[in-house]
Amino acid sequence: MRRANLPLLFLLIFSSVFTAAQTSSKSSSHSAPKKKHTARLQRMQRAFVASASLKPMASQLIQDRTPAAYAGVEAYARAHATSDSGALAWLVAGYAHTLDHDYAGAIAPLSRAKLHAGDLGDYVTYYLATAYQETGKSAEAVTTITDFNKTFPASLLSRDAIVLNGTALLGDGRAQEAITLLETNRLPTRSDLELVLGRAYAATNQNAKAVAIFRNIYYAMPLSAEALNAEAELAKISSPLPPPTFAQRQTRADLLYKGKRYSEAASAYRDLLSEVGDINRPTTELTLADALRKSGQGRQALQVLNPMTTLPPDLAGQRLFELGEIARSSDDDDGFLNYLNQLRQTAPSSSWFQQALLNAGNIYLLRKDYDRAIDSYREMQSRFPSADRASYAHWKVAWLSLRLGRDAEAKKGFEDQIALYPDSAEMPAALYWRGRLAEEDRDIATARAYYLKVSSRYRNYYYGELARRQLASMPAQPAAAQITLLDRVPPLNTAPQIASQPPDDNLRVQKAHLLENGALLDFAVRELKAAGQEAPGNWLPAEIARMYRDAGRYDLAIQTLKRAQPNYFSVDIPALPRSYWEALFPKAYWSDLKRFSNGNNLDPYLVASLIRQESEFNPNAVSKKDAVGLMQLLPRVGKNVAKEERLSHFSANQLFAPSTNMQIGTRYFKSMIDKFGSVEYALAAYNAGADRVQDWLAQPKYRDIPEFVESIPFTETREYVEAIVRNANVYRQLYGTP
Fold first, then answer.
1. Measured by CB atoms within 10 angstroms of the end CB, which terminus of the chain is less buried, N or C?
2. Is 614 in the active site?
């Protein structure tokens, strides 16, 4: 184990030496601020140490905001009334009141926090001014916030404070002062600042300027929270208004469409039709139809599309595609295929035909008409070999050839996949299954070469572990063959980013740690990100993840490190710091997870992997289909299993409780394993439903479970099964016997 960590140790030593060399080479002027800030740093460090015992109480309050939680934090604040840690506690209590929209209740604790706020003074001041403003005390809000940027010039709340100051001035009847303040701080543009400025102009009867601002928000920022407020403000202006320009309305429609607000976009495009010129009318109508279709208004889309019979080829192709998609969404596959044939004649080189061919392949795949699926996928890939989904289409041709017993075609297909699309997501599967076919041909040297490539390049992928299993079952000889094609497999794009410690002499880092003790996690992370701009390095993702993990926000920790190290599945465990792996694969809620897993004869690591895939350990997760909690259970499933478990007085809200969710979820998952007899089949059923799995298992015999997994026709379900099996293997490598 020590030898395995030597490269990491060397990199850390080298990084430290290199950083020290860089630091020493800088001019002495760069070290002056550190001396200047020494007293502030020491003060925050003392407050951080002193407030350690506040953290659990603050976490409870920010999470639950019960009377008991308030009482606990306020008692701590009184016991530390003359210290910075007491000020932090008052800040926490005051901020919790604002979360409850109890702004009157926030004033007293925030006022008490001011005396010893220190470097947290900007947060105390901002939220105290907010509390005054929200309770109608605009004059007090102005007094509190006016000198904010002079007092706290480096605060991250600087522009928020300007907006609040403008709002308070307006509320105090000082609209012209608000205008002066806001006009000098308009860039970069913020919709909330613009809204206040527009209101200030309206209050001073400068209606032309107010209208221009409100219209700019409504038409050029329609996705902002202030857009509807701007519309309401426009309605209040009594003087006659010139109509908005066509260009403004077009911009709003386009932005709504790009923002996937399809129903609103459709209304906006419909309003444009009476004014759009003949040249642009077909394009507008097609976009309107697309927005209607995507918002679930297929019938209305047909009313737009059906009269559009005379169009140039490119627009005719788009119309046929839209008609085909409407047919497909109505389960009219034959209608879709009819439109596909028309597309082939009308717009054979268009992106519409490209996408339609792919959809046709998927339709035939679900129909189990594999020959026609192959024809559609092959046509798509051959006509559009550089398209985004060309590698997928090519892979489907190769894979279905294998399923149909055409091994020679499958071999060539797998090899062509490697040669043509070496960066594609299908590479691990292509390498593995080419190895399997070589093994079936008793060409052990070739098989070994392919398996070794999968295992080394795609280390912790689903197929990486399968390849190692195949290698373990082989005789030691012969050696792997030398295959030139395998040189096409690309190396990792980037080397693993090794984490370093956050700088202990950075004010924002210390401020973030102090805020963390107050469970003010959003503020703390924001300060850390700003510190990352001041002190660049590779320390930031790991520190943010550590902070999220310590706060029980395992989902945010996982997401942070996924973004920071997207290739982590390709590397061996020692290549990244242990802290990375433990944040990516947490043992959250472990006592209950292990208890309920063992009670159902389930591998705890498998259950942890399922939870990681379903919710990333967020107990409050709710899916688009209303699945709830850690294991994403539908309420009806929860109700049925709760009866089996004899849980009295069960309600759907109990699924948000981690313990209850895992008790019901593990029992339900065990029932899937009992039904199907295999983890992979059970996982597929958990994701796609038991009926579908029964249908898939009724297909011609599979070589083994991996062939079943690769044959799952739903990409989401296939990747889901592979990910959970893969994750369980990583858990075992990290933690050993559960």
1. N
2. yes
Q: What is the pLDDT of residues 559-603, one digit of tens each?
A: 999 999 898 999 889 988 999 999 999 999 999 999 999 999 999
Mean pLDDT of the chain: 93
Q: Where are the alpha helices (DSSP H) in 26-83?
A: 32-36, 38-50, 54-64, 67-79
Where residue 626 falls (left for φ over 0; alpha for ψ -120 to 50; beta otherwise) is left
Q: Name the CATH code of domain 590-735 (choices 1.10.530.10, 3.40.640.10, 1.10.645.10, 1.20.1250.20).
A: 1.10.530.10
Say if residues 160 and 126 touch (Cβ distance below 8 Å).
yes
Residue 405 has pLDDT above 80, yes or no: yes
Q: Which residues contact 284 (CB under 8 A, 6 or more apart)?
A: 269, 272, 273, 276
SS (H, E, C) 99-166: HCCCHHHHHHHHHHHHHHCHHHHHHHHHHHHHHHHHCCCHHHHHHHHCCHHHHCCCCCCHHHHHHHHH
> Residues with Cβ < 8 Å from 137, sequence gap 6 or more?
none
Q: Where in the chain is the domain with CATH 1.10.530.10?
A: 590-735
> Containing H/E element for 371?
helix 370-383
Average pLDDT of the segment spanning 57-78: 97
The CATH 1.25.40.10 domain(s) of the chain lie at: 44-237
Query: What CATH number does the domain located at 44-237 have?
Result: 1.25.40.10
* Average pLDDT rounded to a whole number, residues 521-527: 98
Within 10 angstroms of residue 131's Cβ, the number of other Cβ atoms is 27
Ramachandran quadrant class, 681 (left: phi over 0; alpha: psi -120 to 50; beta: rest): alpha
Q: Of 322, 379, 426, 614, which residue is the catalytic one?
A: 614
- Higher-confidence residue: 324 or 493? 324
